[in-house]
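Priority: medium. Attachment 1 of 2:
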């Protein structure tokens, strides 16, 4: 079932054409990797799909409804977005920050319930920071802050998740932990990842969208799309495919 789809979508940043006439359906149970060179428009495309930026052409459907006809609360009840960078201008505790994920589900002037706090604590436990509830958000390391952002996303409990460089600031162990959390037990969800690591994309995603920065895109199953030739063209640098125990890996040549 298609949860999010684009129809003849055109996205542009100044003179850079990110995509043209992009027709895609992101279905339940799918994990998509969005790959491309720096500045090609991956984040802009993600924000356009979230309805935060206007498209230059075409439209986007959220559960078969044009996203532009929905209020932001309705969108946020169905779609969550993990930003590339986190900014904390005001002091707050970790728990107060994570509970922001429940706000789309609350009525005006409604306080978070015990159930909301339980959902937030479960998300905090899942990212390995259960004992951080009372910590100030401004005292966290970059990696800890990234995991708190992930917990906030999980607390929002949406079926569509758009995540922009979710492994920023994380060591190798935490990178795989985060990718496991976001790709496990998600048969009724779809997740779109902006990634720079081809091998993480190949390991955890089943579909890929390549953005070449000139309006050209290529999409399909990772098995068909993530090839030595396609990736060499994408990154304008020789990429070599190697195999180990029937698993393919990519390295810069």
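Attachment 2 of 2:
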């Amino acid at each position: 079932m298609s949860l999010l789809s684009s129809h003849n979508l055109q996205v542009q940043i100044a003179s850079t054409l990110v995509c043209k006439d992009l027709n895609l359906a992101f279905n339940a149970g799918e994990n998509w990797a969005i790959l491309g060179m720096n500045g090609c428009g991956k984040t802009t495309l993600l924000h356009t799909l979230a309805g935060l930026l206007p498209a230059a052409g075409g439209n986007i459907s959220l559960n078969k409804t044009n996203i532009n006809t929905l209020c932001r609360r309705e969108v946020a009840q169905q779609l969550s977005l993990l930003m590339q960078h986190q900014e904390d201008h005001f002091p707050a505790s970790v728990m107060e920050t994570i509970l922001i994920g429940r706000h789309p589900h609350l009525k005006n002037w409604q306080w978070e319930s015990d159930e909301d706090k339980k959902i937030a604590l479960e998300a905090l436990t899942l990212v390995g920071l259960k004992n951080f509830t009372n910590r100030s958000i401004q005292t966290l390391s970059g990696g800890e802050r990234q995991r708190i952002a992930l917990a906030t996303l999980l607390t929002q409990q949406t079926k569509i998740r758009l995540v922009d460089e979710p492994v920023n600031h994380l060591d190798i162990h935490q990178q795989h932990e985060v990718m496991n959390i976001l790709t496990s037990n998600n048969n009724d969800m779809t997740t779109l990842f902006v990634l720079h690591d081809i091998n993480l994309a190949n390991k955890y995603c089943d579909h890929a969208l390549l953005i070449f920065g000139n309006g050209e895109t290529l999409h399909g199953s990772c098995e068909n799309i993530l090839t030595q030739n396609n990736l060499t063209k994408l990154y304008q640098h020789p990429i070599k495919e190697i195999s180990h125990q029937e698993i393919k890996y990519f390295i810069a040549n």
